[in-house]
Amino acid sequence: VAWQEALERAAHEPVRHRGLSHAAVEQAEHALGEFGRVAMLMEAHLPDRGAAPLPYAAVLAESLRRSTGRGAKQVREREEPTWDDLRETVDAWSDEPPDHFLLHKGAVLLLESLDELATALSETTPSR
Prior knowledge:
Elements: H1 2-11, H2 22-44, H3 55-76, H4 84-95, H5 103-122
Helix pairs in contact: 2-5, 3-4, 4-5
């Protein structure tokens, strides 16, 4: 929502911003949309209230929190965002995936969408 509001405001500005190209904006929007869809898919498969907590889910949540927090800071500082914590979690799960069918696949899809976002933003990172 904040992303769309910023785009709408920018469209009415009289001076063209030298930042992201229209293609990069579209690519970033697509990546954020994918991230949102994966998050909704994972949320739709939450365990029942009385179910035992899944330790792997807590690991994923924490690595996502750290990665996106750091990535947001990097974007604000006009640096290319990295998702190291999430990437380490996904890599560690490659050998021994969680026993929940969606955790590993969801984590991989979340990482892929964040990588797409980083690619879209990196098109203009040095000159932004």
